[in-house]
Each structure stands twice: as structure tokens, then as C-alpha cells.
Design brief:
This protein is an alpha/beta fold and about 230 residues long. Helix content is about 55%, strand content about 10%. The chain contains twelve helices and five strands. One of its GO terms (molecular function) is phosphatidylinositol bisphosphate binding.
Length: about 230
């Protein structure tokens, strides 16, 4: 068992009982109209992401459901099964089978696998959200955090047209205060001029803490070789 996970679990045991009860009181009180899961395992995702600050964890839970059921209901509430399957089968996103030295999980995204002629932007957003939410199901990831590793080689003007300011705002909001995930780092490689322009817009809405955890390189890196030899800067 990773040492960082072991230490995190010790903190959990002391904090989670009262924190989960406090969240449930909020759900049955002023937020009784919030339709979401109330089991301990689900609420712990948000509490661990905010280091058991009940107020901040509950705010993140509210934001997630606000985004998915209201603000971006057209993206998340009405999912087309066939289009979703195509996005998930495209190779756009996956979980790497190893963690970093501190136990953090790694989510991988490849822009070159997103063929805009076949997969619409809403399906890509659903795929991305599902990748991060499924990673958050694991207690080790909740405690140790997550790295986002994105190979953005192949980003074109077609991608730029799909990623309107509304969707760029959604990306920034997911990274900033929506997902029950503690981001340890955001690593962008093979960033072209087109992608740097797109990311400059996202960067406006990110918190200072997230900006400091963002690293990027503009070099032409052999990504498959990098993954196979684990030559990651994690």
C-alpha cells in the first residue's frame, strides 16, 4: 500500500464519520430538492477532494449537479447512446495502468483521436466527464489525487470551431470547482500554436492553484514511447 494513501486513510478514519453526517444533514435540510446519491461512498468523493471541509465539499456537489442538470443539461442530460459509444471507443481518453510515486492516478487524453467529422463536442465532453468521475470511484484516487496527461498533437482549426467559448468555460469549470477530484497536475505535451490559443482562454478561468500545477511542452514528443518507458514528469 502506498505510504501517501496509508497516511490519507488515517486522516479519513478520524474525519469521515462526522463529515458524512454533516453532508447528509445539508441534503435533508436546505438542499432537500437536490436529487443526487446520498450513500457514504459517493459523499466521501467530494469530502476527500476538499480535505474534509464540509462547506467546500458540499458546494462542489451542488456545482456538479447544477452544471449537469441545468447549465449544461443539453450536454449531460440528453445523452445519445450511439454517439457516446463512438466517443468512448475512439481512443480519446483512458486510464493509465500505473500511478505516480505518491499514488495519484493518471488520466490520458489524445486530441488526435477526436475526429470531429464523426464525434460531436457534446459526446467528447461526456467522455471526459465519465473518465474523471470513474477515476474518482477509487478511494486511492480520492486520497492521493489525479494527474491529467494530454497529448494535444493534432489539434486543428476544426477542433477550434467545435470548442466554442461556452465549452471552453465548461472545461475550466470542471478543472476548477466541479469534479470531485484533487488535481495534482495538468500536463500538456505537443502543444501547437492553435492549442496554445485555446488553452489561453481556458487559463483565464482557472484558479491560481490549478495554474501552478499546469505544465506544458511544445516539443514533438513520441508519446507512445514516453508512455511505454514511463518517462513522465510526474
Amino acid at each position: 500500500m502506498n505510504e501517501f494513501f496509508r497516511k490519507g486513510v488515517k486522516v479519513d478514519i478520524k474525519a469521515n464519520f462526522h463529515a458524512v453526517k454533516a453532508c447528509k444533514r445539508s441534503l435533508s435540510g436546505e438542499e432537500k430538492n437536490l436529487k443526487c446519491r446520498t450513500d457514504d461512498e459517493f459523499l466521501l468523493q467530494f469530502l476527500r477532494a476538499r480535505k474534509f471541509n464540509v462547506k467546500n465539499a458540499f458546494a462542489r456537489l451542488q456545482t456538479l449537479y447544477q452544471v449537469m442538470s441545468k447549465t449544461f443539461a443539453d450536454v449531460y442530460a440528453d445523452i445519445d447512446d450511439e454517439r457516446a459509444k463512438k466517443a468512448f471507443g475512439s481512443g480519446f481518453g483512458s486510464h493509465l495502468p500505473f500511478r505516480d510515486r505518491e499514488g495519484a492516478a493518471v488520466v490520458l487524453m489524445r486530441m488526435s483521436s477526436w475526429k470531429v467529422e464523426d464525434i460531436d463536442v457534446c459526446s467528447i465532453m461526456n467522455c471526459s466527464a465519465a473518465l474523471h468521475l470513474s477515476a474518482a470511484d477509487y478511494p486511492a484516487t480520492q486520497v492521493c489525487g489525479l494527474h491529467l496527461l494530454a497529448d494535444v498533437k493534432g489539434t486543428t482549426l476544426k477542433h477550434m470551431r467545435c470548442l466554442s467559448p461556452r465549452f471552453l468555460y465548461l472545461v475550466s469549470k470542471a478543472l476548477r470547482d466541479t469534479l470531485p477530484v484533487r488535481f495534482k497536475g495538468i500536463h500538456l505535451i505537443n502543444a501547437s500554436a492553435i492549442f496554445r490559443y485555446i488553452w489561453s482562454i481556458v487559463n483565464i478561468f482557472l484558479s491560481e492553484k490549478i495554474r501552478k500545477r499546469n505544465s506544458s511542452t511544445f516539443d514533438d514528443i513520441d508519446f507512445d514511447r514516453t508512455i511505454k518507458t514511463c518517462e513522465l514528469w510526474l
